[in-house]
Write a structure and sequence with these properties.
With 177 residues, the chain is an all-alpha fold. It has helices at 2-23, 25-28, 32-50, 52-67, 77-81, 83-90, 101-115, 119-131, 150-157, 163-172. It is globular and about 75 Å long.
């Protein structure tokens, strides 16, 4: 009798934790696999520069910044500690060639569609990433984005770019797909 009670108790607790884990934003969205892939490609570069522990949390903070449109979808005090480092690393992010720029742009549009990101926030975030040579915008916007969202394609295409910025972006991404 007592063993059955313990078994039911542990099954109930296990089910509760499983349900709780599924509701966490880290597992809630299908496009999290894109964010995890970005994290996995960025992680070795950060470990090389900062060490194992700091590299892990900094990679997580940068992935959250890029894929969550600089919003916090969940609270994690470890990631929050490294939020300041993200501003420093944004300048160097394109040098690591974590993801080809056109592919990353497509992935971010998929993510924005799933998260239903407001147009102004999307445009602001993508402009900021453009200024750091991470994603293409303006006339460099990949045409394939139309397949995911006409609205976000128009937002990206309408971001003003100068000839100097275009050349700087092209130089930073020479040899990519």
């Amino acid at each position: 009798m007592g063993e059955a009670f313990y078994l039911v108790f542990f099954v109930a607790i296990g089910g509760y934790f499983a349900r709780l884990a599924k509701s966490h934003p880290e597992y809630k969205y299908k496009t999290n696999k894109l964010k995890q892939k970005y994290f996995a490609h960025l992680y070795p570069h950060m470990v090389e520069k900062y060490g194992e522990t700091e590299g892990y949390w900094l990679s997580k903070a940068i992935s959250d910044y890029v894929f969550d449109f600089n919003r916090r979808l969940y609270a994690d005090h470890h990631v929050e500690r490294y939020k300041g480092h993200v501003n420093t690393e944004k300048e160097n992010l394109h040098k690591y060639h974590v993801e080809p720029a056109n592919k990353l742009c497509e992935e971010l549009v998929k993510r924005a569609v799933e998260l239903n990101v407001p147009s102004q926030l999307f445009k602001f975030h993508m402009t900021e990433l453009w200024q750091h040579n991470i994603v293409p915008v303006g006339r460099l916007t990949p045409k394939s984005i139309v397949n995911y969202s006409e609205k976000y394609y128009q937002e990206l295409s309408n971001i003003p770019t100068t000839q100097i910025e275009v050349f700087r972006f092209m130089d930073a991404h020479q040899g990519e797909e």
